[in-house]
Write a structure and sequence with these properties.
With 307 residues, the chain is α+β, with helices and mostly antiparallel strands. It has 6 helices and 17 strands. It has 3 domains: 66 residues, Roll (Structural Genomics Hypothetical 15.5 Kd Protein In mrcA-pckA Intergenic Region, Chain A), CATH 3.10.290; 83 residues, Pseudouridine synthase, CATH 3.30.2350.10; 103 residues, Pseudouridine synthase (2-Layer Sandwich), CATH 3.30.2350.10.
Length: 307
């Protein structure tokens, strides 16, 4: 099986940094878990010797990363309609519907966006994320709707992953939250990690976690509810949901971080990834795509305006 080899020369001034952390900073298109898996497989060497993830680099080492060709996937293409906002030879922008999981996982082996994209694109998908997530460089929650980019080759994947890592991608969301937010706009910060009391949830954690920054702006007020725009600087799991819940304004319909019952018949949180913008991986030009609000969201706004 063919593989890609990346050779890195550790700068002499580097001191006492774990190998997995160094590699995650230098290779942003590879997730930390993927790097650790490559280390476990013996696919990463320092000065010609296989290493453990806990190895500390002291500076001056030669690091080789051998990335095997993506394994042939057993995920079956499914003829599921896609709402395509844009497509070219490098990228595919889709408007993901509510209730669709992005990629297969335990409990969701089929009916995912990946199954639909595989049917649409055939063999033209990036393989950097391996067999489970071909073409996927970022994701949104099952019950969040809106714009998502799919990479159709590895070069596009690396480029957009680097933009995600540098926080240069535009991501604007729309959502409705419980309560009347006092301020017209603001910023929420706080590291997000697994909730120590419930590993299925995320939370703002005092130690560890990953830095997260969410900007919000009030669009309309409905007394007991507020319609907002959210702009992400970072893209942590459940970021908007966790940050707004931390302010006492959980998203309407979010029964994980908010009330278990809602006055409206909703399927999960009222959150929509409306605008996605980035530098095109081939042309270098900034491009921006807008996913219109889904029907249920528009009807909900009409009902709230009548209250």
């Amino acid at each position: 099986m063919s593989q890609e080899t990346i050779i890195l020369s550790v700068p002499p001034e580097l001191s006492d940094m774990r190998a997995d952390r160094y590699l995650s900073e230098k290779l942003p298109d590879l997730s930390r878990s993927r790097i650790q898996q490559l280390i476990s497989d013996g696919s990463i060497t320092v000065n010609g010797k296989a290493i453990k993830s806990s190895l500390k680099l002291t500076g001056g080492e030669s690091v080789e990363v051998h990335i095997p060709e993506a394994a042939g996937t057993e995920i079956l293409p499914e003829d599921i309609p896609l709402d395509i906002l844009y497509e070219d030879e490098d990228i595919l922008i889709v408007n993901k519907p509510k209730g669709m999981t992005v990629h297969p996982a335990p409990g969701h082996p089929g009916g995912t966006l990946v199954n639909a994209v595989m049917h649409h694109c055939g063999d033209s998908l990036s393989g950097i994320n391996g067999e489970v997530r071909p073409g996927i460089v970022h994701r949104i929650d099952k019950n969040t709707t809106g714009s998502l980019v799919i990479c159709k080759n590895d070069a596009a994947h690396r480029d957009i992953a680097a933009q995600l890592e540098s926080h240069s991608i535009t991501r604007r969301y729309r959502g409705i939250v419980h309560g009347n937010i006092r301020e017209d706009e603001g910023t929420i910060t706080g590291n997000i990690g697994r909730d120590p009391r419930d590993r299925k949830r995320m939370a703002i954690v005092p130690k560890g976690g990953k830095p997260a920054v969410t900007h919000y702006r009030v669009l309309e007020r409905f007394g007991s509810y507020t319609y907002c725009e959210f702009v992400l600087e970072t893209g942590r799991t459940h970021q908007i949901r966790v940050h707004m819940a931390s302010k006492g304004h959980p998203l309407l319909g979010d029964d994980v971080y908010g009330p278990k019952k809602s006055a409206f018949a909703l399927e999960g949180q009222t959150l929509h990834a409306m605008v996605l913008g980035f530098r095109h991986p081939r042309t270098g030009q900034y491009v921006e795509f807008t996913a219109p609000l889904p029907g249920y969201f528009e009807k909900l706004l009409v009902n709230l305006r009548r209250r």
